Amino acid sequence: MAVSLVRPAMLRPLRLSPTSLHRWRECPHAYWHAYIRKSPAEVVFNRPMERGGAIHNVLKACFDNLQAAGEFPGDLTALAAEYLPPYRYPDRETWREDVEWIARLATEYLGTIAAPQARARLLGLEWVCHFTHEEYPSFILTARADRVVRLPDGRVRVIEYKSGKPNTYDLVQIAALHLCVASTLRCDAQLVTVSTVFLRTNDEREWEFGPGIAEYRAWIIDIAHAIRLATPDATRFAPTPGPFCRTCPYVGLCPAAPDEFR
After folding, report:
1. Where are the beta strands (DSSP E) in the chain?
2. Cα 130 from Cα 169, distance rounded (Å)
3. From the CB of residue 243, how many other CB atoms can be counted at a distance below 10 Å?
4. Model-level pTM?
């Protein structure tokens, strides 16, 4: 008599990113809407987000031009206007203010960089990289690095631009980016550092995790485990109301959102 063996269903790896990790830690209910239910996000004008996205694109275009032509482009105001869609703004004057703001921040930052060295050391722009954890709870962590450079001593530096208030950062997100870059380059994680550039003040903070990166890797695995356990039951993705409700695109779908944010 033939005996059929029934194998347990193989779970697909979770797809995670620094942003989704931050979303889960901020509010599991928002994570559920964004990444599991995939609810349509409420379209709300978010000025800091518009400016942040545009300045990232402007700086990428500047370094693309450096690679192609050996120099940074001259008219950054025109470049900022190209990457900041005016139709998303409530009025033309606010849009013009932000175009000038982006051009000024980009000009000030590029003024601190020696173009020949920056060109020679560049490894990647808006570089997509991955870290794979194959054991349970299996996941693929994907990050996008703003700029990756090789230093003269052989180490790798990841440069991340922040257009928001200085000293606003999430170390779990930074560690996730660090892991992805080291994994994709197949190099010792201790040879990778992450520098956060706060464009408003041109301040730069460098993160060297060293052996401590193992602690953050374990933390990320714990988050993946919590998501995997919660996934069968939507009620396990409990809302955690807080100040971030103000800009949450799912606040209208949240049963616990404060009334002032609805």
Report:
1. 14-16, 122-133, 139-150, 156-162, 192-198, 203-207
2. 21
3. 9
4. 0.86
Estimate to the nearest angstrom the gap between the alpha carbon of 178 and the chain centroid.
Answer: 12
Cα 86 from chain centre? 24
Helical segments of 33-91, H only:
47-69, 76-83
User: What's the residue count for the chain?
Assistant: 262
- Taking the alpha carbons at both ends of the chain, their separation in whole angstroms is 64
Q: Are 8 and 136 in contact (CB under 8 A)?
A: no
- CA 100, CA 216: separation in Å to the nearest integer? 39
Q: Which helix (H) or strand (E) holds 182?
A: helix 171-185
Instruction: Walk me through the domains of the chain, giving residue ranges and CATH numbers.
Output: 116-220 (3.90.320.10)
Query: And the tokens for 109?
Result: 């930052």
Q: In this structure, are residues 82 and 101 in contact, taking their beta carbons and an 8 Å threshold?
A: no
**Two tokens, residue 186:** 């197949």
Contact of 214 with 177, CB cutoff 8 Å: no
Residue pLDDT, tens place only, 152-205? 999 999 999 998 777 677 899 999 999 999 999 999 988 999 999 999 888 889
Pull the structure tokens for residue 191: 């040879």
CB atoms near residue 94 (< 10 Å): 14
